[in-house]
Amino acid sequence: MSSETSAPPLPSGSQDNSSIPSLHSSILTPGPISNHRSLDHLNTLKLFSPLFSPICSLFSKLSQWRDHLDLPDPGTYEQVGREAKAVHLTNYIFDGARAELSKALSLNPAFNVTHSFNMGAQAGALGGISPGTYSFGGMYATNKIFAQGTIDNDATLMGRLNYRWGPKDISKLQLQWPSSPSSPSVTQLEHERHGKDYALSIKAYNPSLIDRSGIFITQYLQSLHPRFSLGVESVWQVMPPMEDASLSYLLKWHSANKDWISTLTLQAQGVIQASYWQKLSERVDAAVDLQFVPHPLPRERKAVSTVGLKYDLRQATVRAQADSTGKVSMLLEQRVAPMFTFSVAGELDHVKSQSKFGVGIQLESSPLDENALQGVTAPTPPM
Fold it and tell me: Segment Disordered: which positions (predicted)?
């Protein structure tokens, strides 16, 4: 007698599921139609392979050629000429009286707060003396995040947020919200891509999807030689019903050890700007800047040249500057103590018979003692 038992007969109205192919097997198992489609795809690729093969080969050879050149990182488009800007007083000069008190609450992650006071400064083209202002700021930074915000006595809020996605990509956000409804707010979005021998930046100022307006800027800087870089900048302004686009070009040339750097920028409408920076000694830097604005009428053409000198003493930094418009200015930053800096600034305009004078102090404090700071490394935030 056999040990195997036969399956009971199926009831009426039932089907044998073993004779019906499952949906899963029908999807995974290619039928004759899918086989024909695969053959069609292969035939299509074989048909276009002679067209794409030279292009792929060209890109491969270019990549190998760039790796063989071992070109350096040129830096970002905006950083070009920063050495000359660090010598000149354009970003450092001030007038009136100001005080800045900052306190570090943490080193890693870096976190500090700042109180700033300004009073007695000239009110610009309107004349008179501007009233005193106060602003409170805070900064938080890690290796991936940099966040900074300030608010003044008029309730104007400004903020920055940078985020590092990886070794090559950084996204940035800047906001400015004025307290007055009549003053427009400013929003800036930016993304930077740093390659081995290039830098790409894409920016958007006040982009709006409602009226499709904004200012869009693309900057690209490429190293063509270990000592030479070439860059291009495109600006597209969309203000319905008007649109405008312009291009600018940049050249950067420096020595092998970067003890001198020269730049040349050809901006839209023919504006030319050139700068030259040189490190004369370990403590002395010099910089020259030239800006030429063309015009069809010779009398309307303008050219301004600026010469600056920076001297780093053991406990002080001196900056002096003179330009072709008759302005002479100087700034002294004296470090009286490790946490205390005293500043004196002055500017004299011989042509307009005007002068500016300013004094300032900067005080820093930290609740952490030297023992607590031992072994703590400050972060490198994305800037």
Answer: 1-26
Any residues with CB less than 8 A from the CB of 178 and at least 6 apart, and which? Answer: 154, 156, 184, 185
60's enclosing H/E stretch is helix 32-69
| pLDDT per residue as tens digits for the range 289-336 | 999 998 888 788 889 999 999 999 999 999 999 999 999 999 999 999
Torsion of CA 178, 181, 182, 186, to 10 degrees: 40
- The number of domains in the chain is 2
In whole angstroms, give the CA distance from residue 216 to residue 291: 25
Q: What are the tens digits of pLDDT across the range 63-93?
A: 777 777 778 889 899 899 999 999 999 889 9
CB-facing half-sphere around the CA of 15: CA atoms within 13 A: 5
Instruction: Determine the Cα–Cα distance for residues 92 and 307; give it in Å rounded to an integer.
Output: 15
pTM: 0.78
Q: Does 11 reside within a domain? A: no
Q: Which amino acid is at 324?
A: S
Residue with tokens 């292969």: 42
Q: Which long-range contacts (CB under 8 A, 24 or more apart) does 245-250 make?
A: 250/77, 250/80, 250/221
